[in-house]
Amino acid sequence: MLTLYSFGPAANSLKPLLALYEKGLDFTPRFVDPTRFEHHEDWFKQLNPRGQVPALDHDGHIITESTVICEYLEDAFPDCAIKLRPADPIRIAEMRVWTKWVDEYFCWCVSTIGWERMIGPMARAYSDAEFEEKMARIPIPEQQAKWRAARAGFPKATLDEEMRKIGVSVAKLEARLAESEWLAGPDYTLADICNFAIANRMQHGFAELVNTAATPHLVAWIDRINARPAAQAMFAQSKSEMPAPRPAAAA
Amino acid sequence: MLTLYSFGPAANSLKPLLALYEKGLDFTPRFVDPTRFEHHEDWFKQLNPRGQVPALDHDGHIITESTVICEYLEDAFPDCAIKLRPADPIRIAEMRVWTKWVDEYFCWCVSTIGWERMIGPMARAYSDAEFEEKMARIPIPEQQAKWRAARAGFPKATLDEEMRKIGVSVAKLEARLAESEWLAGPDYTLADICNFAIANRMQHGFAELVNTAATPHLVAWIDRINARPAAQAMFAQSKSEMPAPRPAAAA
């Protein structure tokens, strides 16, 4: 039995969620509510001591880290007809360079701006006492530091540097997608799913950078993934912390 | 035919180097000399546009990123008797959480202190003109920024924070190795190789943190890997930028 604990179809949580839909695997989605800090509650920290989503429970075994979970689904269900990892070792390596890049570079710059815009105001709405009570339950010191930085407002130099990195990231994706339908070559793979998890909706949140004039291939790729039956089903059926991407998904 | 471009048996270069020795695969080692900035020369940037080692040439296909290369060797040589990736998907996931952690956390804090100690003095020995000439050949802006920070000396707050993270890392490794012979469970895997790449010689460079009194299990694990025939052969036969770990390896 598979249970996926996640924040719903956005950011890192989207990765295994979309992979599960693509592969057509039966699973129980368990929405963890970030606005209630459910991922820092004791019951969840017993599953993942780091207090982070997503986490997959497979027959009582807990798998953590979004990209690791995605590869796990390939390893644990080798007979599943839908493969999200190429067969050719060279292509697998290309795929992993892309999934590694999103985890080490692309996701962080987008995340900081997202935190500045969304987590900052949320954190400032708490009294100092309420805020400290929530901080005390966060097991990762770096995560606590990020909350404090968001509450104070990230320094302008940090925001400028992260925006520069977002520009680099967008240019890199556009260049690759101008020459290849999918990131790791001719097939749709985890490289696409893991980068889509961060890039999706940038055409709204970062419209000055991601738009049909400046990045036609990136926008077409985002649209192409959103149009996939698995993505449509995921958005329609999943609870989400994020605004729904289109009216049909609000159900 | 396999050719590995590397800085020799230390840091990220050690990972695929040791994996190749462990698996007994025939390969040509190509030492890239960091003191001559060979990795920023045009011939190397034609192999890896990011100007980073290690890089593996397999019959003309270039694989980059140390951890990706290690997994590639498992994928590309499935008939090799020596497996460095477990068979059980749960164990593979555990292994990947460890290889991901070293790439995203452990290697960076150790790297900053190493740069402060070794790259800083080296960078300051150049005239401004010499230094700028070298900077102009570095393709990654973040890498240029790291060189400039090392030359200026990293801020004390940065060094303190990195030392804190090294302390967290050492404690994490010690705790895990107190309960398990190898990081990802009963078998020696890429989790061990990739963490050893960073941890090896910390008993010298960070003796106040890594020693038989404070971290007996970590030291025993480092010794256990150094004693493996593959590690001994690698150190004895490889050119290295680093001081040799023992007299026999200086040949």
Features:
homodimer; 251 residues; alpha+beta; Glutaredoxin; Glutathione S-transferase Yfyf (Class Pi), Chain A, domain 2; 2 domains; 4-stranded mixed β-sheet; 4 strands; 57% helix; 7% strand; globular; disordered C terminus
Structure overview:
The structure is a homodimer of 251-residue chains. Mean pLDDT of chain A is 94; it is low at 243-251. Chain A folds into 2 domains: 2-84 and 235-241, Glutaredoxin; 89-227, Glutathione S-transferase Yfyf (Class Pi), Chain A, domain 2, CATH 1.20.1050.10. Chain A is built from 11 helices and 4 strands; from the N terminus they run E-H-E-H-E-E-H-H-H-H-H-H-H-H-H. Chain A has a 4-stranded mixed beta sheet, with helices on one face. The longest helix of chain A has 36 residues, at 89-124. With 251 residues, chain A is of the alpha+beta class.
The sequence of SSEs of chain A as H and E is EHEHEEHHHHHHHHH
Q: How many H/I helices of chain A?
A: 11
CATH level 1 name of the largest domain in chain A: Mainly Alpha
Outline the low-pLDDT stretches of chain A: 243-251
Largest sheet of chain A: 4 strands, mixed
Whole-number tally of structural domains of chain A: 2
Q: Largest interface, with Cβ-Cβ < 8 Å?
A: A-B, 23 and 23 residues
- Let me know the average pLDDT of chain A: 94
Number of strands of chain A: 4
Would you give the CATH topology of the largest domain in chain A?
Glutathione S-transferase Yfyf (Class Pi), Chain A, domain 2
Put the structure in a nutshell.
The structure is a homodimer of 251-residue chains. Chain A is α+β, with helices and mostly antiparallel strands. Chain A has helices at residues 11-23, 42-47, 66-76, 89-124, 128-135, 141-152, 156-179, 190-199, 202-205, 216-226, 229-237; strands spanning 2-6, 28-31, 55-58, 61-64.
